[in-house]
Amino acid sequence: MSSYEEFFGELNSSKNTKELIDLFDKYHIDRRDRKKYPDLAFNITKEEIDILKSRGIITTENNFNELLSQNRDLTALEKLLYAVIWKNGDLVKVRHIISGTCGEKTTSRVFNQFGQYLRDKNELIIDQHVIRAYIYYKCKKIIKKITNEDYDKYFDDYKSWIENHNLFKMNKGIIDELLFGVGKKMKQTDKD
Predict the structure, then answer these.
(1) Whose CA is closest to 48, among 110, 101, 107?
(2) pTM recorded for the entire structure
(3) Which of 37, 43, 44, 106 could pair with 96 as two cysteines, CB 3.0-4.6 Å apart?
(4) Rg of the chain in Å (alpha carbons)
C-alpha cells in the first residue's frame, strides 16, 4: 500500500459508493472471500434465544448447555456446527454472541458486537483489523496486537465515526471490508 495516510484521506473525501469501491483496487485491498465469509442474510432475535433457553439448549447465563455434547437427538446440522465450535475451542465465546443478540453487554466487545449485528444488520461488525486501521486513522500508529484496552478506548468512537459520516453509514459493509483489509495489511507489516 502506498500510504495509509493517503488511503484515509481518500476514504474521508469519497463522495459516493463507487469511489469507496474504487479504493479496493487503487490500494490493493483484498475483498472479503465470499466463499469463506458469505453475507449473513439472517437475523437472530431475543425471542428465538428465549425458545432455545426454554428447550434447555441455552442456559440462563447464555451458554450452550453442557449436556448438548451428550445429546444424540440433535440434527446432523446441529451436531456438525456444535462440533466445529467445540473443535475451535469457541464454546466460551458463544455466550458473548448470544448476549449481543439479546441486547446485553459482556466483556468481549468483538463477539458481543457480532451478536448485536446478528440481531440488527444496522449494527457494525468490528474486529481487530478494523480497530487497528481506525487506531491508525486516529493516532497515526500501527498496533499489531490489539488489546481489550484498545477496544475499550476506540470502540465507541469508531461507531460514532461511522454513524456521523452519512456515506459511511449507508455503506457499512464496504467500510468494514476496507478497514478490515487495511488493518490486516498493517498487521503483516509495520511500514507506512
Answers:
(1) 101
(2) 0.87
(3) 106
(4) 19
